User: Fold this.
Amino acid sequence: MTAAAPKPQKSRATNSRDERFRSDVHTEAVQAALAKYKERKMPMPSKRRSVLVHSSVETCTPPDTSSASEDEGSLRRPGRLTSTLLQSHSSIEPWLDRVIQGSSTSSSASSTSSHPGGRPAAAPSAATALAGLTAHAHIDLHAAPPDVTTGLSEHSHYERPQVASVRGIPRGHGRNVLETADGVPVNSRVSSKIQQLLNTLKRPKRPPLKEFFVDDFEELLEVQQPDPNQPKPEGDQMAVLKGEPLSVGTSGPPSLLAALQLWGTTQPKAPCLTALDTAGKATCTLTYGKLWSRSLKLAYTLLNKLTSKNEPLLKPGDRVALVFPNSDPVMFMVAFYGCLLAELVPVPIEVPLTRKDAGSQQIGFLLGSCGVTLALTTDACQKGLPKAPTGEVATFKGWPPLAWLVIDGKHLTKPPKDWYPLAQDTGSGTAYIEYKTSKEGSTVGVTVSHSSLLAQCQALTQACGYMEAETLTNVLDFKRDAGLWHGVLTSVMNRMHVVSIPYALMKVNPLSWIQKVCSYKAQAALVKSRDMHWSLLAQRGQRDVCLSSLRMLIVADGANPWSISSCDAFLNVFQARGLRPEVICPCASSPEALTVAIRRPPDLGGPPPRKAVLSMNGLSYGVIRVDTEEKLSVLTVQDVGQVMPGASVCVVKVDGAPYLCKTDEIGEICVNSVATGTAYYGLLGITKNIFETVPVTADGVPVSDRPFTRTGLLGFIGPDNLVFVVGKLDGLMVVGVRRHNADDIVATALAVEPMKFVYRGRIAVFSVTVLHDDRIVLVAEQRPDASEEDSFQWMSRVLQAIDSIHQVGVYCLALVPANTLPKAPLGGIHISETKQRFLEGMLHPCNVLMCPHTCVTNLPKPRQKQPEVGPASMIVGNLVAGKRIAQASGRELAHLEDSDQARKFLFLADVLQWRAHTTPDHPLFLLLNAKGTVTSTATCIQLHKRAERVAAALMEKGRLDAGDHVALVYPPGVDLIAAFYGCLYCGCVPVTVRPPHPQNLGTTLPTVKMIVEVSKSACVLSTQAITRLLKSKEAAAAVDVRTWPTILDTDDIPKKKVASIFRPPSPDVLAYLDFSVSTTGILAGVKMSHAATSALCRSIKLQCELYPSRQIAICLDPYCGLGFALWCLCSVYSGHQSVLVPPLELESNVSLWLSAVSQYKARVTFCSYSVMEMCTKGLGAQTGALRMKGVNLSCVRTCMVVAEERPRISLTQSFSKLFKDLGLPARAVSTTFGCRVNVAICLQGTTGPDPTTVYVDMRALRHDRVRLVERGSPHSLPLMESGKILPGVKVIIAHTETKGPLGDSHLGEIWVSSPHNATGYYTVYGEETLHADHFSARLSFGDTQTIWARTGYLGFLRRTELTDASGERHDALYVVGSLDETLELRGMRYHPIDIETSVIRAHRSIAECAVFTWTNLLVVVVELDGLEQDALDLVALVTNVVLEEHYLVVGVVVIVDPGVIPINSRGEKQRMHLRDGFLADQLDPIYVAYNM
Assistant:
């Protein structure tokens, strides 16, 4: 025994329970282990204040009546413990002292650097912090390019924040604060926590593992190999251990019912059972005479009085449910024996209190599978059950329909004098069924035959030396297990008197059982270790009790590793009250094998008790090593006595075939005896495995011709043939190759400052499988008075203690409010239900600490990039493999129209004049407002005249010259279009800019200012309202309003003509600048020449078949990219009429766009993803109403989503499904693809084959490979073609690094060559050199002449079976995602959207998600669409799903309100903005969890 006491006295004999056996050794070991850990800073999760006020007042009361666990419960009055104890018993001071000091010895293990309230962390100086950060992440210390996101919020139900506009602009704090690259002050609370997290993660991890198992070909998950130095069993093979023979005395009754009849008729006055109320008063004493007569009466009623249609309701052997409360043992006993007399099979179950009781559904399943149709209960209990409206007892969820029979005396019929049932109770027929709940939560029924029942009673009588008329006090549940075997069955065999103590009384008065032993002079008592533990804490009234009458104190859960401390402490206190040490008799039992072993007092021939101090490390490898060096990680176990009379026991290996273990090996204990259960009712397969095991020797020879029953107990046979149990199979968790026992881990957690922050015994430990291995989860109930800091500190110390003692990491540690864990029938925690809630995100913890970095050691190796194959060999390789080079092009322009017209239409300004001249009154534009009414229109001549006025004003008022740049700051509308053509008319270069948002000038105005400055605009054109806004006081607070260039208000310019309209000298002259912000926050303007502008319009015209007679509807923002081209350019070029719907108007009228499409019968319509999402979310329930209003979408030939990303299949599909009801053709919806270098590469158009969808393996994608798989296969990802390649456009796929061409279906960067490519960046803020080759790249091999533009997107081309318009086979382009957005983690390339999709699926409360990396940590931000107190449920689910599906460990989980993730006008997430906001502490998160 290793005590951490100074001088262990090794000389005493083993059985004298001396000082050394005080079993607070475990507590000391834990405290010593914790003391070794230096003060280590772990980042404390930050929580919004409102979440701290977590729950209503009720939960702040101490745990209610039944909050104690099966093993060690909590008491109503925890506070009295120390004072009175210390005064009254000097003998136990050292023991208590240690427990109490333990709480302070190392309470500083993990203080944290910052508090949820937001006091600034005492961070290291900013400089060191920055140095640390740069060491970790590749951060360039020059400013990152600025970011200009949309000002306008365009999200459906939540107001999206106006994004902090440009990255890199100082945000209101002086420049003297040291910043990281992204303009984030380093001393922000978040980054200091991340720094702490990195420091914690830098600590050496467990040694890396060597081997792999193949998880498909892509990524190999590591598989743990046995450690060559691990302990291995070295003993001989064990022999089967036989118990003493079962001496069936001739005097005893031949059967249980014979005994009942004998005592009932010869000793009718003898007391059989005394029931107590909650005051401890005896409410009723059942005599043997009464028990016999009432049981007969019940049997008669059951057999003769329950009929339906002259058929008896019940036949012999039918199963009957017994539903009795724990406070009514008398009625239960009558019911049980009544059923046996009537040859019915009783199935005792718990009283279902509510329709949703933990585990009640499984009980229902058991009743159904046993074919139970009748339930017996008491009057009082029946009244308390939930009722249906008819007054009948409600049907519980998952239960079969039951008839309820109340068995109180007045409801029963007296049998005739000569009536006697024909019960046969000795054979192999089933006597009763006991339910058991398995580790997974399923409930099975163990059938016990009549012969087993008799043998069990005889064996217990012999082992416990029970005599006639002895008194037994029973604290256990009399409906099952030892409580039933001793207190209801064996007691009747021996005419004993049982005093049954209800659980409710124990909670009011934990000493009640001791007082009853004393007042009834009981010879035997049946308790669990928690009853002993409780009675120690209740000090009053211990003085006047005397336990000298006890000859056996049977500890029913003596097999639990914690029971030893209760036994020792109990003896310490009560030895002075007459308790003899040898009286304490731990026993081991299991539902399948009934009683397995019990310690017998010396007078019954028991050897002296023993303890084993075992090495925890050895145990984890299934090996027994008695710990000699005073190590910390030991488990002290006591023996559970000898094998039962008439039984044989052996220990077999836990996994695989039942080979006998060696003598120093832990295995599952198996019993062969007449007295075990016989089967799981109705489950033949698992019955065979459990009840009919044939243990074999190493050579495969069976050890016996009779089958053994597996007990589910893990243990070994020790000296003196004593049985030792070290755990249960149900609590076994196999992590890597080592085994850990849930109960041991609970014991370690309890030893960390017990009772201070969490309720003793309200701790659940279980394992969940994540990434092919068990992961340990620990859930505890937190005391309402524990502060956040205390709890977090307790959690981090528990982690350290478990790590140190068990050498295993805890995957997740959660604290829940008091009284919220699901309860088992008598107190304890319902483990399987707790696990279920954890996995479903229904646990609602108030504190969570996840440690995936520490625990998950089987991730695939980080990918090592191989030296690349050169581009030439790649082409050769493709040719050899018969693969074509991936190259595709749209239709040839030359074939499609006469070049004459193309020449005429080279300059858009010329086209507009020509139209104004030839078709002056032809309408080009209609603008709708939110009500759907037309607010402004423009015919060819009107637009021409308005453009002339603008040109005149620019030349006269603005004094501008040709070639000057002009910023157009307009809301979406015709004014914007007129201003654009006005600029062309006088030779200026227009730059369209989204106007600032009046409610959010602070973030949106700097963006406007920046574009005006970067584009070197000499003048700003705008409306009167916006002009006022730009010069307002509010604007002055955001930007320097004195530095605006000339601002012209075009609302009141005079009607003037220009003398001559400017004609560009060559088509290559700059026509306009297109400024936009990438999702990574880079602001860039591209140059569009006149030639490119007209080529763009021409391609779109041909692809969509646009003519003056057509109408198209556009619901897009008109400021950049294809949205701008469709809104401002195409109508003038092709002459069709555009119905303009500003997306902003949809916020007040969601159906505006679809109504317009229907009203104008548009064949072609364009929208953005954000518009489509608004319609899908906002109109889901309204399709019927829209149909009534006459909305009909059958006119639509093609509805295109303008996008610069991978097509969002799920959104387009749900949109198509939803509006199919309004006539939208199934194949109408498609997407377009464009990017900075070419705004329109693909566009479905009106002809050509439908877009195709392929499924690729997501794991291969991470390695930059395309592997096509079947739909629905694991890890498959659907990709939809992004529309057809436009006329005149050529696309090739190039290798991202070698720039060589790739083959068909290979992933690479999409390169494009076309007459409408932009001619270059006007400016990229910051990194000009990097972008030089974006517009003028050449292949490194093959066709090295063509000039290509690099799109920056990954994708692949695939030749399909379809034919296109020209009769050729069609090449489909699949866009996978932007290279800038990808995350490089573990050497692999991840697309954020894939991780986000997994996360959104993880829980129904996750509304949106965005991921980014910071210092190589993956940060996941989720929007919670639910109650704040459910926020913490998401942490584990998010971590699990990302591990399972992406093999990545999440570093930080941030839970925020809906609408926090910024989104731009195209509906794309602005992840870099989000990152900046997070690091600058601006998100106001509900909860931030730092995963360790």
Q: What stands out?
A: The two ends are 35 Å apart (CA to CA). The chain has a mean pLDDT of 82.
